[in-house]
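Hello,

Following up on my earlier ticket. Below are the two sequence lines again, exactly as submitted.
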Amino acid sequence: MIWIIARKEFTETVRDGRFLLTGFVVFFLFISAIGVGAIRYTEDQAMRQDATAEERELWLNQGKKGPHAAGHYGVYAFKPATPLAFFDPGYNDYTGTLQYLEAHRENQASFKPATDGTALQRFGDLSGAMVLQLLIPLLIFLLCFGMVTGEREDGTLRQLMSIGVARSKLIWGKAAGAGLALSAVVLPCVLIGAVLAAVFIKVDDPHLMIGFPTKLVVITLVYVVFFITLTAIALSVSIRAKSSAAALTTLLAFWIVTALLVPRIASDLSKVIYDLPSSFELAEAVQKGRAEGPHAHSPNHPNHKAFKKKMLEKYNVERVEDLPFSFLGLALEEDEKVGYEVFDRTYGHVRRTFVKQNQLHEIFGLLSPFIAVKTLSNAIAGTDVYHSNDFSKSAEAYRRQMVTILNEDIKKKAVGMSKYESTWGYKANKSLWEQIPPFDYDPPPLATVLGHNKLPIFILIIWLVGSLALLSYSARRVKTVNQ
Amino acid sequence: MSKSQTDKANQSLIRAVQLCKKYNGQPALNSLNLNIAPGEIYCLLGANGAGKSTTINLFLDFIKPNSGHAFIDGMDVQKHPIETKKSLAYIPEIVMLYRNLTGIENLRYFSTLAGHNHYTDEELYGFLDHAGLQNDASNKRVGGYSKGMRQKVGIAIAIAKKAKVLLLDEPTSGLDPKASNEFSELLLSMSANGVSILMATHDLFRAKETGTRVGIMKHGNLVDDLHTEDIGHADLEALYLKHMHD
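Thanks for your patience. The regenerated structure is below:
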């Protein structure tokens, strides 16, 4: 019986035309968003690959120079975009795409595409994920708002009830019918979108494709759960509303509040509650911490002199030339060690604050399923702040490995040299540069991503169960006539 | 209650016992007792707001009584909301159908939901034809139907449902005399097959012509209950007006 009701709802919806027209607009927006996203992703990916290869080339062929000079020369680490970023760019435009890795300094990711965004780019901002997160819900509301109120107003509900149809069967049938009608729009979107993506996007890096099929399945599941939740809410409203107009107004208000207002308030509030230090404060804190180091480049600084004295005493020698290691290497190493601590403390605080902000933001998901879905979609697509932090951490770990190799080389190879000699006299060549492997970042696997997102997963499940419970409760109380 | 009365009540397909309904404290129906036997056509007369539609809505379980019971085919409609509807068909003033579906699609949908999913297309066209709707009209969307055509689909639904009880709420008001007459013919043939019919109407002429019994309602009370064979046209009108003027 549910199937017969569903089929009738589907037939009616399709014949009505309004839904198909709206659905076509949504379809067009989704396909163009996916197309633009795929082209942009492919261009960015090609640029990243070229730049990475060029960067490696430059590093290897930088010629003979002091290892520390090479450390200052540095390398650029490019953040690879995960394949699903074409669908959900998330925070990619705001979190920086490359990180400059050099001696002495932990740089933050820079070159945020949003910084030089033009008005034209706003069109490109419409991603496939946004269509699914904001427009499809509107489509669901337009589809469902009159499903019960309309039948009550038209009197067909009386006719149905006089036939002896169980109320809950009628409502589940309508829910299934809404699902069918929605699938008629969403399935072509997804299928044609997938074909477009497959044609445009060539991912040459197999590392990026790790876990891709499972991620695709999970992200699909997230959206299916989201759509079911919204359908259940819309139908419950249609059952309870006095009129179709009231149902539509209620649902539009729900959309404005939970899709636009609550996420805005959530992010503003989490920023106010967990305040981030300004970049000036950060720079000051780093400088202050670094000042306590041995000042490897300033021989007249008291710290430098004290470190020198300590080393000479430790190894019981008179001159730096008599040390078993190059003094420059030791000083640089010590300087980096002080730096690591300062960076871990300063930027660690920033990263922890980001995590707290995110957690508070996620709790607001209890008020809006849109937040939970956006969080999960970003996370699985690999375009959230967590991924960006993970990339930064990985790049910093690579930087530390790089400067360690360089400083170790100075320590060993510049033994017996004065500080001036070791700085300007000792030169390393390509064999040292080759010892430093190319930077290769693997995005975290799905299990890690899900582990970080237990809260939004839990919240989304609460929304699903809650909305279905509301629907099943309301379904048993469908009023045949307004009383 | 005498034995013969009890037997009669037990046979009744439509039965009300001390049925009361109040809206905001105002009685809309007052202790209605009614027994309608198989084959009887009972016409409820009365001004607007006299309680005719309330009575029918109570039998349909669309509204709940404040006290008393309504029975269809021996079952309390409140306790058996789904089962009682298996044996009844309801035709309101305007039969409400899905405007984007054709007549035949509406009929198929309603009969399938009523549990008759076994009808072939020929049978369904046959029901519509029997109800007086031509085949070419059956394939058009209901959105363009006249009231008479809608009522015919309503009849076809009732026929296809093999209903034992018909609840009609002013089904012929606004129909032209020919359509109204055809409708009455259909009711008579159904009643000949043992169907019990309860019809709220303003049409005294039709009530006398078609009905086997007539009840006059006023302010929620059934003030008169008589057999049409015992009364002439003029007398019925006089009686009705007398009640209205009291």
